[in-house]
Each structure stands twice: as structure tokens, then as C-alpha cells.
Amino acid sequence: LVRRRAAWPSAPPGPRPSAAMSGGGQVAAVEQAVRERKEEHKAARREAVAERRSVAQSSSVCKQRRRTLAVVQRRRKGQQAAWKAAQHNLDWCRKKGWSTEGAKGRLSAARKRLVEKNRAETVASRELRNARSERATATKAAQLVNVRRDRARDRLKLEALRLRQARAAAASRVVGERRLKALQAKQETQRRELAARQREAAQQLEARLQEEASSLKRKTVEKARDETVKRQRRASAYSAALRSGEPLHADKFHRAGASAMKAKSDDPNYSNRQSVLRPRGKRHEFTIVYLHQFCLNGTNYVDWKPHYFFSQTKLPYLSLKVTLPTAKAIPITAHDGCKQYAWYDYKTDHDGKREDVLESKSLRETRDRIFGILDREIELLSGDASRVFLGGASQGCCTALHCALTYPRVLGGFVGVVGHLLSSSPLPKGKKNLPIYLYNGKADEVMRWTWVRETYKRFKEAGYTNVNIKAEEGVTHGKPERKEREWILDFLHQVIPKESKKG
Fold first, then answer.
1. What are phi and psi of 202, to 5 degrees?
2. pLDDT computed for residue 503 by the predictor
3. Which CA distances in Å does 174 have to 24, 150, 168, 169, 227?
4. Residue partners of 294: CB distance under 8 A and separation at least 6
5. pLDDT mean by block of 10 residues, the chain; 503 residues
6. Sequence-separated (6 or more) residues with CB below 8 Å from residue 410
7. Residues 255, 302 contacting (CB under 8 angstroms)
8. What ranges in 333-471 are assigned the alpha helix state H?
9. What is the dihedral of CA 196, 200, 202, 207, to 10 degrees?
10. What angle (nearest 5°) sits at the alpha carbon of residue 203, between those of residues 197 and 207?
């Protein structure tokens, strides 16, 4: 190892090209350094090969010494077993009272052979340790040689990189000078061409601006004319509705069922009856079941509010059927037994400060009735529950939301106006993706937003992912008419597919 280290001195780094050298001089100097590093690397590789052979030879000797030791150990174990057998034989002869001369002779001979085997094992172990020590020395020497070889290889790579850089720099200077001349000539040509294009573009831009100004004026006049025609048509339709006594957009629907206009008495009974708006001249593709407010009835929407479910601009489709049931007239406990159209009985009246206590039996009866209506409407649409929607206002909102959450099938969506989630309403996991749209007024004095929003927090706690809540400033509970139409149309615009709206 000492001899090899002396034969492989550390070579000094090759000459670095100075900035004063020309391009050709720098390349020649680096090429000379690369040749020197190649020779240095070759010598290091040869020495590394020799060291690997030495390590392989040492490993072979170690294997041979291990095999020899294993053989000697097996023989020593066999001799030890023979000595134990001779000892046992001697003890047996003594126990039986037989002659022990032969047994003692065999025991003495076995002991001598065992001592010889132990000595041979000790010698084999020492030889194995020596062989391992020689192998470790050879391995360490090989590692040192490999380090020097790797360093020589790294120096060779560095010099090769410097050579490539010097060559690339020289070539780059030549190419750069050539490109600079070509670029200068090209720039001069482009400068002249650019000046000509700018003059031409300025002329084209002036012509295009004049044409666009004329087109804009023409489109403005046409749009104003179209808007005037539309306003005249709407004004004509509204005037005709006023003259005939019909509400706006009543001509879009065929009205059936209970109606105040068709009533024969001044105080008709609408309890448990139903009103319907069907699209005129077309089979319906969707149905919404909408529950009225406390003390009102479904005929209000049929007779005076069909425009709540149609918009000439936002929802110009004629494929929606509107089912408007009227609640049963029941005595209200909180109102001293006075009969009102109500979806369930109120046991208390907290004057809007918190949720009132309801009578569960009346709610169950209403739920069963609404379930029957939903079953019939779904059957009319070939069993597709996703085309049936449910909604309501105030007490109708609370009842409809309770029915939508407890109905066995998942509906296409729910819309609620100035209502809340009943404390008794469950939140099943199967309805987590049901589209729910809730609209409230922050100025509501009957169902105050301060406690209504707390009931909505149950949706988030139950993991409902498609609940849309909108609370607007200045909207009260008593007069949400204009907002009710806006909110219903917004809901229908969201849940009815666009291809159906085109119809």
C-alpha cells in the first residue's frame, strides 16, 4: 500500500486559460490539460483493477478459512460427543460393578483426541481472523484507490467541460460576429418595412373606426326600435289584462280546480281543495307543488298570481304545471279555537320572538295528504321524481320542507319563502344532495331572522351540501309579494334544465 501511494502522487490542476489568451490559445491549453487528466485517470483505473483483484483474492482465502474452520468444528463436536459417550460408559460400568479398565482407556484416548481437536480449532480460528484482517486491509486500500480514481475522473470531467466551454466560446464569438452583421442589416430592412406598415395600418384603422361607428349607430337605432316594440306589446298585453280583469300571463296557463272567480257564493269553502295551473297547448314536463301561507288559500295564486310561475324574459318556457292545494280549515289553539286555513295547529303564539309549538297530529295529516299529491304528480311524469318540485311560503314553507325531507323519494328541488326548518323535521342522510333554496327577509317580524338562521345551521351540522340561503334587507313577512315572485322564478331558473326552458 505504501509503495502504491508513492507511485501515484497527487497531480496538480491543469493550466487555466487566462483572459489575455486568444480563442485558439485557450483551446490548445485546455486540450493539453485534458490529455494529462486522461493519462492520470487511466493509471488510477489500472490501480483500482489491481486492488479489486487483491480484495477478491483475500475474500477467496477467507472463504477457504471459513470452510476449514467449519470442518474442524464439526470434527471437534463429533470428538466431544465421543468423549461424553466414553464418560457415560465408564459411569455405567461403575454402576454395574463391572471392570473399568477398558472404559478408562477409551476415555483417556477420547480426551486426548478432543484436546487435539480443540487445538486444531483454535489454529483454524486464528487463521480465519488473520485472513479477515488481510481482507479488511485490502478493502480499505481498494477504497482509497477508488477515491483517487474518482477524483481523477472528476478532474478529467472538469477539464473536458472547460474544453467544451472554450470551444463553444470561440465558436460563439465567430457566430456572434456573423449574426451581429446580419442582424444589423435585417434591422435596417425591418425598420423601413415597419414604417411602411404603420402608414398602411393607420389608414386601415381610420377606415375601420368609421365603419364601426356607423355600425354602432345602426345597431343602437335597431335596438331602440326593438325595445319600443317590446314595450308596446307588453303594454298592450297588460292593458288587455286590465280590461278583461285577468291577471298578467293568465293566458299562458289553463286554470282548473278551486277558483274564487268561479265560486257561486260570497264565502266559498276551499278546505282541502286543490287548484291547478297547466301549460296551454303543451303537455307539462315539470311540476311544482306550492303551499300557501297561514290563513290564505291556493286560489290566490290561480286567480291573481299566475305570473309568479312565468316570466317572458327570465323563464320563457311553457312546460311547467303548478299544483296549489289549499289547507284544511282547522281550529287554532293559540287563537282560541278560531278556524283558519292552516297546514298544522299552533299551540302557542310567541309573536315572532321564537318558534311556536305545533300540534304534531295535524302536521302528520297534512304530510300524508302532500305525499299523496306528490305520488300522483310523479306518476303523471312517468315516475321521474327529479321533475317534481316542492315549495311554500311562511307556514307552507315549513310544512313543505318537512314533507320534502320525510318523503321516501328524492325530489328535484325545494323552494321556501319566509319560513324556517321545524325543530321536529328530521335530516336524513339520503337527502344530503337535495337542492334546497331558502329565501328570507331580515326585516321579517313574524319569523325573525335572528332565530330562523339558527334553525338553518342544522343543515350544515348534518352535512347537507346543496343548501342555498338568501336573506335580503328590508323584506318583511307581511308583504313579500314582489320578492316572492322573484325568488320563485330564481329557483325555477336554477333547477329546470336549459333545454327545457328553450321550449
1. -60, -40
2. 45
3. 12, 36, 10, 9, 72
4. 340, 341, 342, 343, 394, 395, 396
5. 40 50 70 84 84 85 86 86 86 83 84 86 85 84 84 84 84 88 92 92 92 91 85 67 56 72 74 86 88 89 78 66 93 92 93 92 96 96 95 96 96 96 95 95 92 95 95 82 83 80 45
6. 385, 386, 430, 431, 433, 434
7. yes
8. 360-380, 395-406, 449-461
9. 170
10. 140
C-alpha cell at 169: 466560446
CA 431 to CA 465: how far, in whole Å? Answer: 10
* Residues sharing a CB contact under 8 Å with residue 167, sequence separation 6 or more, in sequence order: 27
DSSP character string of 231-252? HHHHHHHHHHHHHHTPPTTGGG
Q: What whole-number distance in Å separates Cα of residue 329 and Cα of residue 338?
A: 10
Count, residues in the chain = 503
Asked whether the beta carbons of 467 and 458 are under 8 A apart, the reply is no
pTM above 0.90, yes or no: no
Q: Which residues of 25-44 are buried (b: 16+ CB within 10 A; e: fewer)?
A: ebbebbeebbebbeebbebb
E strand or H helix at 338: strand 338-341
In Å, the largest CA–CA distance within the chain is: 148
H-helix or E-strand containing 341?
strand 338-341
The three cell numbers of residue 53 are 483483484
CB distance 306 to 247 below 8 Å = yes
Residue pair 344/358 in contact by the 8 Å Cβ criterion:
yes
Please give the Cα distance from 256 to 191 (Å, whole number): 80
